[in-house]
Amino acid sequence: MFDIIKDTVLDSVRLLPFLFIAFLIIEFFEHKLKDKSKKVISKSKKFGPLVGSILGIFPQCGFSVIATNFYITRIISLGTLISIYLSTSDEMLPILLSEKVPLIEIVKILFIKIFISMLIGIIIDILLSKKEKRKIQKEELDCEICHDEHCGCEKSILKSAVFHTAKTLFFILVVSFFLNIVFHYIDSEILSKTFMKNNIFAPFLTSLIGLIPSCGASIMITELFLNEVINFSSLIAGLLTGSGVAILLLFKQNKNKKENLLILLLVYLIGSISGVVLELIRLLIG
Q1: Which of 130, 133, 192, 252 has its CA 20 to 30 A from that of 107?
Q2: Of the candidates 52, 249, 47, 222, which has an alpha carbon nearest to the alpha carbon of residue 149?
């Protein structure tokens, strides 16, 4: 057990400088784009899914939460909301950067997520375009997640980067410790079978993990992929459903519970089916 703890701490601490640099860069662009992103997404109208899928890729503090608020007040369409949920990957990007994953691999993941998010969002809006639009409410909700966390996003880039680095490092420690125990006591082949690696139905499992309303979900999915417990298709499936706390806020703020459940089911099915399709393509290509 001592060796497991030591390895977990050393491996996590090793990521610290790279994780901090990644978050510092991300925070810089977030501060530059945050207000513009709000304006762009609120005025995008029929181009909402395209704009939302691209903006959602950047792990901006509370962006999927902002999108949730915009949808509740009917500033954006359902297709735009879904595209943002699907493209959001929470802490995936900084972890991949800190782990020095090849840039081409990162770009491939981001491109696939953008493409699926955009395509699904456009299809949803086309299907709903003939229905009567709901009345848009005038009030705009605040991104209360960031305020509750007191991460300092609105004031200091450095403070915000330190906060998110510490928070992510904590989750990495917890997830890595859990996985290291599992890896130590369970044979890797058994573990791969548990997560159904290379099984066409595996995406249904990772998509379910992705729905957990915490950045820990995206961290676990990313770590499982890096440790070769799940394959690429399952990674994409889990990351497509990993919108962080946004779904939780949707259930909290939106009074239409039936609609919330339908959105949750839609996100889960899209993530799962997308993973299955990618796995089928992999099997066909060989």
Answers
A1: 192
A2: 249
